[in-house]
Amino acid sequence: MPRNLIVCLSALATIGSVVAQRPANTSICDYYTTALLTDNSAANQYTLLTLLVNTAVIGNYTEPSNGVLVPGILNPNGVYNGTAVNLLPYFNGCDISTNNDTVFNLTTNPPISQNFLDGGGAVPLMHNLPANDTTSNQYFLLTHLYQYFGVLLGCSKYNTAGFPAYGGVGSMYRVHQYMALDPNEIGYFITQVGLSAASFGVASSDINAVANALFSLFSYKCSPPVTVVPAQGKVLDSICVDSESRHREFLFDQLNGFDVVDLSVFISDSNQLNDIEPHHVLLSDNLVSFSDQDKDQ
Ligand code: HEM
């Protein structure tokens, strides 16, 4: 058994006992790395993200002492809002929903089917690894998820030795554009991330802050560009392009003078998050959509 897994598993024995309130100036990543793995090192922050993402993807693979069950993103029998959800075909190559290269041109590079479970599937994830190798689609998908969610959760050691910087495509809109994801599919995915965090003893206030941020950033059709990964700058991040998805007000940024420059600050201060909640207004579809105006972004 790999050493980091032994450390993790022994840390997990304490799960459910993270009861103290997270200080407002400590990010979710830093706080729970310290709480669960003691030393707030880059390697431990990366391990925390590995635990969180792997559990969200395949469901519980460690016994949660608090009994929170995680069905998992790959579970073909998912349910969200009373609706059956099956995300597996997007990952196992059954759907033709993956970008062919990073040209993002429907005519010259139409979508392809790609198997993202080609690095051993669930087994390496259960051993706290991204894949059995370092070259598979699975390896790149999983490591990119650790890195991206590391930014979202404000990991202070992100982009230092032991915690690689995000190596994937910046725009989440581009990454997911051919999946045409609907609100239930996105809701199911985000719920698995939340349940995974809950299974490790993350406080419900922190889970709500993260879930709100995920819905806010990714689930509103035609959201204006936003900076999540600082090195990427402002990019289109809405992954909910299905006709059922709600539109976000086009002038959101300009009207409110609000710019998400540093999401780690954004997430670690839930008051800021509450501040923008009232602006999540449901707008009619006849608003000029951002992506219609600027398809090249
Ligand atoms: C809700 C927030 C979500 C976030 C923040 C997110 C984030 C990401 C990131 C960072 C990547 C890696 C991109 C790269 O390697 O360049 C990715 C890839 C992927 N995501 Fe998501 N995702 C979300 C929701 C979903 C949902 C709901 C699905 C539904 C099936 C999904 C399916 C996929 C697939 C299949 C890939 C591989 C795509 C590729 O590499 O071309 N994601 N996602």
From TrEMBL:
Keyword field: Signal
Signal peptide: 1-20
Protein name: Heme haloperoxidase family profile domain-containing protein
The organism of origin for this protein: Friedmanniomyces simplex
